[in-house]
Amino acid sequence: MTTSQGEATTEEHAAPAEAWDAIAEGYDRYVAPQEVDLANEALRLVRLEPGERFLDVAAGTGGLSLPAARLGAQVLATDLSPAMIERFEARVRDEALSKAEGRVMDCHALDLPDDSFDVTGSQFGVMLVPDQPRALREMVRVTKPGGRVLVIAYGPPAELEFLHFFISAFKAVSPDFPGLPDDPPPLEFQVSDPDVFRRRLTDAGLEDVRIERTAERPVFTSGQEMWDWVLYGNPIPGMLVADLSEAQQTRLRQVLDGMVRERAGVDGRAVLTNEVNIGVGTK
What we know:
Blueprint: H1 17-31, H2 36-45, E1 53-56, H3 65-70, E2 74-79, H4 82-95, E3 100-104, E4 117-123, H5 132-141, E5 143-154, H6 161-173, H7 194-203, E6 207-216, E7 219-220, H8 223-231, H9 235-241, H10 246-263, E8 270-271, E9 274-282
Parallel strand pairs: 1-2, 1-4, 2-3, 4-5
Antiparallel strand pairs: 5-9, 6-9, 7-8
Helix pairs in contact: 1-4, 1-8, 6-10, 8-10
Protein backbone atom coordinates (compact mmCIF):
# COMPACT_ATOMS: atom_id res chain seq x y z
CA MET A 1 0.00 0.00 0.00
CA THR A 2 1.22 3.47 -0.84
CA THR A 3 -0.25 6.88 -0.26
CA SER A 4 0.74 10.37 -1.29
CA GLN A 5 0.62 12.88 1.56
CA GLY A 6 -0.95 16.13 0.39
CA GLU A 7 -2.58 19.15 1.95
CA ALA A 8 -5.86 18.84 0.07
CA THR A 9 -8.65 16.41 0.74
CA THR A 10 -12.20 16.17 -0.53
CA GLU A 11 -15.49 15.62 1.26
CA GLU A 12 -16.37 12.55 -0.76
CA HIS A 13 -14.90 10.19 1.84
CA ALA A 14 -16.58 11.89 4.84
CA ALA A 15 -19.40 9.86 6.38
CA PRO A 16 -22.59 11.70 7.41
CA ALA A 17 -23.82 11.84 11.00
CA GLU A 18 -26.44 9.17 10.25
CA ALA A 19 -23.71 6.68 9.33
CA TRP A 20 -22.00 7.28 12.66
CA ASP A 21 -25.34 6.98 14.45
CA ALA A 22 -25.74 3.52 12.93
CA ILE A 23 -22.49 2.23 14.42
CA ALA A 24 -22.62 4.05 17.77
CA GLU A 25 -23.65 1.01 19.82
CA GLY A 26 -20.89 -1.13 18.36
CA TYR A 27 -18.36 1.67 18.68
CA ASP A 28 -19.16 1.98 22.37
CA ARG A 29 -18.93 -1.78 22.89
CA TYR A 30 -15.96 -2.80 20.75
CA VAL A 31 -13.87 0.27 19.92
CA ALA A 32 -13.84 2.80 22.77
CA PRO A 33 -12.60 0.30 25.40
CA GLN A 34 -9.50 -0.37 23.25
CA GLU A 35 -8.70 3.38 23.20
CA VAL A 36 -8.28 3.87 26.96
CA ASP A 37 -4.54 3.16 27.24
CA LEU A 38 -3.70 5.51 24.37
CA ALA A 39 -6.00 8.19 25.81
CA ASN A 40 -4.33 8.03 29.20
CA GLU A 41 -0.89 8.26 27.58
CA ALA A 42 -1.97 11.37 25.67
CA LEU A 43 -3.57 13.00 28.71
CA ARG A 44 -0.33 12.51 30.65
CA LEU A 45 1.55 14.07 27.75
CA VAL A 46 -0.66 17.16 27.82
CA ARG A 47 -0.52 17.24 31.65
CA LEU A 48 -4.25 17.33 32.27
CA GLU A 49 -4.94 18.24 35.90
CA PRO A 50 -8.01 17.58 38.09
CA GLY A 51 -10.44 20.47 37.92
CA GLU A 52 -9.29 21.74 34.53
CA ARG A 53 -11.91 22.33 31.85
CA PHE A 54 -11.48 19.76 29.07
CA LEU A 55 -13.22 19.79 25.68
CA ASP A 56 -13.32 16.64 23.55
CA VAL A 57 -14.02 17.39 19.88
CA ALA A 58 -15.48 14.70 17.59
CA ALA A 59 -15.55 12.60 20.74
CA GLY A 60 -17.46 9.55 19.58
CA THR A 61 -18.68 7.68 22.65
CA GLY A 62 -15.92 9.10 24.87
CA GLY A 63 -12.68 7.27 24.15
CA LEU A 64 -10.74 10.36 25.28
CA SER A 65 -13.30 12.28 27.35
CA LEU A 66 -14.21 9.44 29.72
CA PRO A 67 -10.55 8.93 30.78
CA ALA A 68 -10.30 12.73 31.21
CA ALA A 69 -13.36 12.73 33.44
CA ARG A 70 -11.97 9.85 35.49
CA LEU A 71 -8.90 12.00 36.12
CA GLY A 72 -11.12 14.68 37.66
CA ALA A 73 -11.38 17.15 34.78
CA GLN A 74 -14.57 19.08 34.02
CA VAL A 75 -15.44 17.51 30.67
CA LEU A 76 -17.58 18.53 27.73
CA ALA A 77 -17.74 15.91 24.95
CA THR A 78 -19.00 17.04 21.54
CA ASP A 79 -19.81 15.06 18.42
CA LEU A 80 -21.91 15.50 15.27
CA SER A 81 -23.64 12.15 15.94
CA PRO A 82 -26.52 12.28 18.46
CA ALA A 83 -26.27 8.52 19.01
CA MET A 84 -22.60 8.79 19.92
CA ILE A 85 -23.37 11.48 22.51
CA GLU A 86 -26.24 9.40 23.90
CA ARG A 87 -23.81 6.53 24.46
CA PHE A 88 -21.30 8.85 26.10
CA GLU A 89 -23.94 10.23 28.44
CA ALA A 90 -25.04 6.71 29.37
CA ARG A 91 -21.45 5.90 30.36
CA VAL A 92 -21.30 9.11 32.40
CA ARG A 93 -24.43 8.10 34.30
CA ASP A 94 -23.22 4.54 34.85
CA GLU A 95 -19.93 5.78 36.31
CA ALA A 96 -21.48 8.73 38.19
CA LEU A 97 -19.10 11.19 36.55
CA SER A 98 -20.85 14.32 37.76
CA LYS A 99 -18.48 16.76 36.03
CA ALA A 100 -18.94 15.37 32.52
CA GLU A 101 -21.59 16.19 29.92
CA GLY A 102 -22.14 15.76 26.20
CA ARG A 103 -23.51 18.00 23.45
CA VAL A 104 -24.20 17.44 19.76
CA MET A 105 -22.01 19.85 17.84
CA ASP A 106 -20.22 20.27 14.50
CA CYS A 107 -16.47 20.54 15.04
CA HIS A 108 -16.21 22.93 12.10
CA ALA A 109 -18.32 25.51 13.99
CA LEU A 110 -18.20 24.91 17.73
CA ASP A 111 -21.10 26.62 19.51
CA LEU A 112 -18.84 27.67 22.37
CA PRO A 113 -17.27 30.95 23.54
CA ASP A 114 -13.69 31.92 22.85
CA ASP A 115 -11.03 31.13 25.47
CA SER A 116 -13.17 28.67 27.46
CA PHE A 117 -11.12 25.49 28.04
CA ASP A 118 -7.81 24.67 29.65
CA VAL A 119 -7.29 21.68 27.36
CA THR A 120 -9.01 20.86 24.06
CA GLY A 121 -8.47 17.43 22.56
CA SER A 122 -9.53 14.98 19.88
CA GLN A 123 -8.68 11.29 19.57
CA PHE A 124 -9.21 9.75 16.12
CA GLY A 125 -11.92 12.38 15.56
CA VAL A 126 -10.65 15.56 13.92
CA MET A 127 -8.32 13.37 11.86
CA LEU A 128 -11.46 12.33 9.92
CA VAL A 129 -13.14 15.64 9.15
CA PRO A 130 -13.17 17.08 5.62
CA ASP A 131 -12.04 20.60 6.58
CA GLN A 132 -9.44 19.79 9.18
CA PRO A 133 -7.70 23.21 9.19
CA ARG A 134 -11.02 24.86 10.04
CA ALA A 135 -11.72 22.34 12.81
CA LEU A 136 -8.25 22.89 14.28
CA ARG A 137 -8.76 26.66 14.26
CA GLU A 138 -12.01 26.14 16.15
CA MET A 139 -10.22 23.98 18.73
CA VAL A 140 -7.65 26.73 19.23
CA ARG A 141 -10.30 29.46 19.37
CA VAL A 142 -12.14 27.93 22.32
CA THR A 143 -8.93 27.17 24.25
CA LYS A 144 -7.76 29.65 26.89
CA PRO A 145 -4.56 31.62 26.26
CA GLY A 146 -1.79 29.44 27.62
CA GLY A 147 -4.02 26.37 27.33
CA ARG A 148 -3.12 23.20 25.47
CA VAL A 149 -4.50 21.48 22.39
CA LEU A 150 -4.13 17.74 21.86
CA VAL A 151 -4.81 15.83 18.62
CA ILE A 152 -4.35 12.07 18.16
CA ALA A 153 -4.26 10.67 14.63
CA TYR A 154 -3.01 7.62 12.74
CA GLY A 155 0.43 7.43 11.21
CA PRO A 156 1.07 6.15 7.66
CA PRO A 157 -1.03 3.23 6.36
CA ALA A 158 2.11 1.12 6.00
CA GLU A 159 2.55 1.29 9.80
CA LEU A 160 -0.96 0.09 10.72
CA GLU A 161 -1.01 -3.66 11.26
CA PHE A 162 -4.78 -3.86 11.51
CA LEU A 163 -5.04 -2.37 8.04
CA HIS A 164 -2.68 -4.96 6.57
CA PHE A 165 -4.67 -7.75 8.22
CA PHE A 166 -8.03 -6.50 7.03
CA ILE A 167 -6.99 -5.65 3.46
CA SER A 168 -5.17 -8.98 3.08
CA ALA A 169 -8.27 -10.84 4.27
CA PHE A 170 -10.46 -8.75 1.97
CA LYS A 171 -8.28 -9.55 -1.04
CA ALA A 172 -8.38 -13.25 -0.16
CA VAL A 173 -12.14 -13.26 -0.78
CA SER A 174 -12.25 -10.48 -3.39
CA PRO A 175 -8.98 -10.49 -5.40
CA ASP A 176 -10.00 -7.46 -7.46
CA PHE A 177 -10.21 -5.20 -4.40
CA PRO A 178 -7.86 -2.28 -5.23
CA GLY A 179 -6.93 -1.35 -1.66
CA LEU A 180 -6.64 2.22 -0.41
CA PRO A 181 -6.90 5.19 -2.79
CA ASP A 182 -3.69 7.17 -3.22
CA ASP A 183 -4.70 10.67 -4.30
CA PRO A 184 -6.29 12.07 -2.27
CA PRO A 185 -5.62 9.65 0.57
CA PRO A 186 -8.50 8.71 2.87
CA LEU A 187 -9.23 11.37 5.47
CA GLU A 188 -7.75 9.15 8.19
CA PHE A 189 -4.27 9.82 6.79
CA GLN A 190 -4.34 13.54 6.04
CA VAL A 191 -1.87 14.22 8.91
CA SER A 192 -0.03 10.90 8.90
CA ASP A 193 3.09 12.84 7.90
CA PRO A 194 4.43 14.50 11.09
CA ASP A 195 5.63 17.54 9.13
CA VAL A 196 2.17 18.14 7.70
CA PHE A 197 0.67 17.57 11.14
CA ARG A 198 3.04 20.07 12.76
CA ARG A 199 2.36 22.66 10.06
CA ARG A 200 -1.41 22.35 10.44
CA LEU A 201 -1.26 22.79 14.21
CA THR A 202 1.06 25.79 13.83
CA ASP A 203 -1.14 27.35 11.14
CA ALA A 204 -4.12 26.92 13.46
CA GLY A 205 -2.46 29.26 15.95
CA LEU A 206 -0.50 27.01 18.30
CA GLU A 207 3.01 27.50 19.62
CA ASP A 208 5.60 25.05 20.93
CA VAL A 209 4.08 22.35 18.74
CA ARG A 210 5.52 18.87 19.04
CA ILE A 211 4.54 15.59 17.44
CA GLU A 212 5.10 12.48 19.53
CA ARG A 213 5.10 9.08 17.86
CA THR A 214 3.58 6.22 19.79
CA ALA A 215 1.37 3.22 19.02
CA GLU A 216 -2.12 1.95 19.53
CA ARG A 217 -2.13 -1.75 20.46
CA PRO A 218 -5.57 -3.33 20.07
CA VAL A 219 -5.94 -6.87 21.38
CA PHE A 220 -7.98 -9.62 19.70
CA THR A 221 -8.63 -13.26 20.50
CA SER A 222 -10.58 -14.07 17.33
CA GLY A 223 -11.29 -12.90 13.81
CA GLN A 224 -14.80 -11.95 14.92
CA GLU A 225 -13.40 -9.57 17.53
CA MET A 226 -11.23 -7.89 14.93
CA TRP A 227 -14.15 -7.76 12.47
CA ASP A 228 -16.28 -5.97 15.08
CA TRP A 229 -13.49 -3.53 15.96
CA VAL A 230 -12.89 -2.60 12.32
CA LEU A 231 -16.51 -2.41 11.19
CA TYR A 232 -17.74 -0.44 14.18
CA GLY A 233 -14.76 1.91 14.21
CA ASN A 234 -15.70 3.72 11.00
CA PRO A 235 -18.65 3.55 8.56
CA ILE A 236 -16.38 3.05 5.54
CA PRO A 237 -15.44 -0.64 6.13
CA GLY A 238 -19.11 -1.50 6.49
CA MET A 239 -19.79 0.10 3.12
CA LEU A 240 -16.99 -1.96 1.59
CA VAL A 241 -18.13 -5.32 2.94
CA ALA A 242 -21.72 -4.55 1.96
CA ASP A 243 -20.65 -5.33 -1.62
CA LEU A 244 -19.61 -8.85 -0.61
CA SER A 245 -21.98 -11.79 -0.54
CA GLU A 246 -22.89 -13.37 2.78
CA ALA A 247 -20.61 -16.29 1.96
CA GLN A 248 -17.72 -13.92 1.19
CA GLN A 249 -18.26 -12.06 4.46
CA THR A 250 -18.20 -15.35 6.35
CA ARG A 251 -15.01 -16.34 4.56
CA LEU A 252 -13.43 -12.95 5.32
CA ARG A 253 -14.06 -13.47 9.05
CA GLN A 254 -12.57 -16.95 8.79
CA VAL A 255 -9.42 -15.59 7.13
CA LEU A 256 -9.14 -12.93 9.82
CA ASP A 257 -9.56 -15.60 12.46
CA GLY A 258 -6.68 -17.59 11.04
CA MET A 259 -4.46 -14.52 10.95
CA VAL A 260 -5.34 -13.54 14.52
CA ARG A 261 -4.72 -17.05 15.84
CA GLU A 262 -1.41 -17.25 14.02
CA ARG A 263 -0.30 -14.01 15.67
CA ALA A 264 -1.65 -14.89 19.14
CA GLY A 265 0.66 -15.78 21.98
CA VAL A 266 0.26 -18.62 24.45
CA ASP A 267 -2.52 -16.67 26.17
CA GLY A 268 -4.55 -16.66 22.92
CA ARG A 269 -4.29 -12.87 22.58
CA ALA A 270 -3.05 -11.20 19.41
CA VAL A 271 -1.65 -7.70 19.95
CA LEU A 272 -1.42 -5.53 16.84
CA THR A 273 0.67 -2.38 16.57
CA ASN A 274 -0.66 0.72 14.81
CA GLU A 275 1.55 3.81 14.60
CA VAL A 276 -0.04 6.92 16.05
CA ASN A 277 0.96 10.59 16.03
CA ILE A 278 0.08 12.72 19.06
CA GLY A 279 0.21 16.44 18.34
CA VAL A 280 0.39 18.89 21.25
CA GLY A 281 0.66 22.67 21.22
CA THR A 282 0.07 25.73 23.39
CA LYS A 283 -2.19 28.65 22.54
